Amino acid sequence: MSGNRIIEQVKIDDIDLSDETYKISSGKFHSADSSENSLKRLNSNALHALADSIEKIGLINLPILKKVKDRYMIICGFKRVHAMKFINCMLQTSATVILPESAEPSQEEKISCASIAIADNAFQRQLNVMEQLRGVSLLKEYLSIEQIALSSHLIFNSRMNVAMIRMFDELSRMPESVHELIENERLAMTTALKLKECAIEEIDSFADLFLKIRTGLNKQKEIITNIIEIAAREDISIADLISSDDIISITDQDDIDENRKGNLVRSILLQRRYPNLSKAKEQFAENFKKLSMKGDIKFDPPVDFEGRDYTFSFKVSTVEELTQKVEILSRVSHNPLIGQILP
């Protein structure tokens, strides 16, 4: 660690709470309005328990600050410092202070501060995706991807390969709207990377959509792919497609849960992207219903109707059940509708 570290009493008001250069953990603490009421509104949920603990038990782990002229910047311990500001009962706090070697910090010193900020969180708990992303972004200013990978186990408390770090690096350059989706578990990391070739306004349109629906990883990718392909084929913008009446009529309904909205949007897009396939599926479902096959017999067409092989499947546990199933299939084979289904 470059620079000297000492433990001293620091006035809370001398700490720059707005400087979040080394902030890794999720959650917002800073507000442009620094009044007591504003701070209480901002921090009450996230910091209430920690503030109570510090007030009753005291500060167990000291935050690490860096002396910058006559002010201090937080290297790690953002929640602790803000909690003390929140309880508004301490004029000063004990802290480990990094004294600068010179007026202009060296690259080694910056790397050391970034490593401390990341490790302070990583060795307490597993970092989430956005915290790893912020850590990689901090180090990437001074180290190569290969150098970060080599020391990742010492800093992130887990080994990260070059491909993973490169993925975080690519995500770090994407708009804040994507970061918020990832942080709120609205969009998977690998799905977000599918948007990296899109324009900013297109990414913002996707962000608006995924704020209103919830889907799994594969469905997210499918929705994005279909939207991009439909927009290109129909020569319309992605924003116009996402804000079209058939999509808005689903996403803006308050009485439908977000998972259901996701499935309905996916279905609309599939019908619009593959109209012939959608019609074929609807016709098959209608004919299957008319066949009135009972006895839990499944009848499945080839995938996407590309092929000639249809599948009947059922389960039996007795000879009597097998006989019943065979009789049902025999009856179905003489139904004229089966001729409209099978080639």
Helix percent band: 55-70%
Average pLDDT, to the nearest integer? 85
Distance between the termini: 75 Å
Q: Helix/strand-derived class?
A: alpha+beta
Q: Kindly provide the name of the CATH class of the largest domain.
A: Alpha Beta
- Number of H/I helices: 16
Strand content: 5-15%
Number of strands: 6
- Characterize the overall form: elongated
* CATH topology category name of the largest domain: Conserved hypothetical protein from pyrococcus furiosus pfu- 392566-001, ParB domain
Name the poorly predicted regions: 30-43
Strand order of the largest sheet: 1-4-2-3
What's the gyration radius in Å? 29 Å
Number of domains: 3
State the oligomer.
single chain
What letter string, H or E per element, gives the SSE order? EHEEHEHHHHHHHHHHHHEEHH
Major sheet summary line: 4 strands, mixed
- Label the CATH architecture of the largest domain: Alpha-Beta Complex
Structure characterization notes:
With 343 residues, this protein is an alpha+beta fold. The protein has three domains: 4-104, Alpha-Beta Complex (Conserved hypothetical protein from pyrococcus furiosus pfu- 392566-001, ParB domain); 189-273, no CATH class; 286-341, no CATH class. It contains 16 helices and six strands. The chain has helices at 36-57, 78-87, 107-122, 129-140, 145-155, 162-172, 176-183, 189-192, 200-210, 217-234, 238-242, 245-251, 258-273, 275-291, 319-333, 336-341; strands at 4-11, 64-68, 71-76, 92-99, 298-300, 311-313. The strands form two sheets. It has a four-stranded mixed sheet with strand order 1-4-2-3. The chain has a two-stranded antiparallel sheet with strand order 5-6. A hairpin with a 2-residue loop joins β2 (64-68) and β3. α13 crosses α14 (275-291). The protein is elongated and about 90 Å long.
